[in-house]
Amino acid sequence: MKFEMIGLNHTTSTLEVRDRAAISSGRLEEVATRLLQEPYMEGVVILSTCNRVELYFSPSYHSTDQALYSRFAESCNLSPAEARAAYIHRDGDAVHHIFRVASGLDSQLIGETQILTQVKQAYHSALDLACSNALLNRVFLRAIECGKMIRSRTAISRGAVSVSFAAVNMAERVFGHLKGRRILLIGAGETIRLAMKHLMNAGAESWRISNRTRAHAERLAETLNAAVVSFPPHDEDLAWADIIVSATGSPQVVVSADQAARALSSRNRSGPLLILDLAVPRDVDPAFRSDNAYVYSVDDFRQLVEANLKARQREAVRAEKLVRQSVEDFVVWYKAHRVLPTIQQLQEVLEEIRTEEIERNARRFSAADREQVELFSKILIKKVATLIIVNMKQASVERNDLSLASAVSLAFAGEDKEAVENVLEQLKHELSH
């Protein structure tokens, strides 16, 4: 197998280096075209995400480590020293790596699902640019299959593993679905943005935003078609909402217990009020309590997140075993598949010899005999071919031995008598073991 890769990820590089190394969609064609122009390069797939940049190659001959480092530095705008921090895998190890990547086992957040979509996109981009080849096609299709299988046969992607996601899961439990529910966001930082993303994915559509810096709220509102309200929010804004998500970083309480109680009493919405206080220290006065409101803080979600992370780590052990088996299956397939051109050549030559010999001796047979000769000769050729093919595949798969396949290819390429005798001798040797 001639398959190799080089890359960096969140464990081997800083965010600043990964940002610089990233290959944007606008640069994909330029980088892939340049790589394909290198001697002996037959195929390229480029995987570039926020947490990794990896180049996968199908060359005629393996490159040296130094050649891979140089290629990586040039493609990713890195210095030679930065490029040397990259990891390199070849052949079966490279297959194992991309299978783990697609399965979410090499991700910063074990089991995350986005990486499988990104692997698919990388492969489809290679197809669109006509820079993949048969080997890369098979590797990436099997990697995608492996990623799907891992997520269906294990629980590695189940359970919220971020506070924001856990909070939105709680909202779905309270309301069933979020379509038509009103959301008040207090704050405009990263935590609020993550919660907003999860809420949107869950179907939320109606928004108001309150933030100390109005310009930040307005920028966020543009993505949501949301109304920007005062900070701190007025009673009417609190009363308008079904779900309040707050994460401001304020050292003081943003919503007092009295204000929350007033807003709750003036609501004309059916169903409870859900307050998700994701700030540390808390934005909503902990003294606020009501039978008509659910109030959750970061501490309420932390235990759930930690339990889910531990569960994913346990599932990762099972997933690793399944990935290893998938890699072994792929390697067996590849070793059997690589002798297919020789098998095809063997079958074509044997059929050609069979028909030529029958035609050359046609006058010796009656019409009735001709039918019997045709039938008998086909059976004979099939048995001979099967004997050789089975032993070629066994030698390739079990011992990584291509000598018989090479001898067959050489013998029948020129129908050399000495070469054919050599094949027969090797076949006798195979049968005696």
Structural summary, described in words:
The chain has helices at about 15-20, 30-35, 65-75, 80-85, 90-100, 115-130, 135-155, 165-175, 190-200, 215-225, 235-240, 255-265, 300-335, 340-360, 365-400, 405-415, 415-430, and strands spanning about 5-10, 40-50, 50-60, 85-90, 180-185, 205-210, 225-230, 245, 275, 295. The protein is built from 17 helices and ten strands. Helix content is about 60%, strand content about 10%. α6 (about 115-130) packs antiparallel against α7, α7 crosses α13 (about 300-335) and α13 packs across α15 (about 365-400). It has about 425 residues and is α/β, with parallel strands linked by helices. The chain has three domains: about 5-160, Glutamyl-tRNA reductase, N-terminal domain (Beta Polymerase, domain 2, 2-Layer Sandwich); about 165-305, NAD(P)-binding Rossmann-like Domain (Rossmann fold); about 335-430, no CATH class. The strands form two sheets. Strands 7-6-5-8-9-10 form a six-stranded parallel β-sheet. The radius of gyration is 32 Å and the shape is elongated. The model has no long low-confidence stretch (mean pLDDT about 85).
What labels would you give this structure?
17 helices, 433 residues, Rossmann fold, Beta Polymerase, domain 2
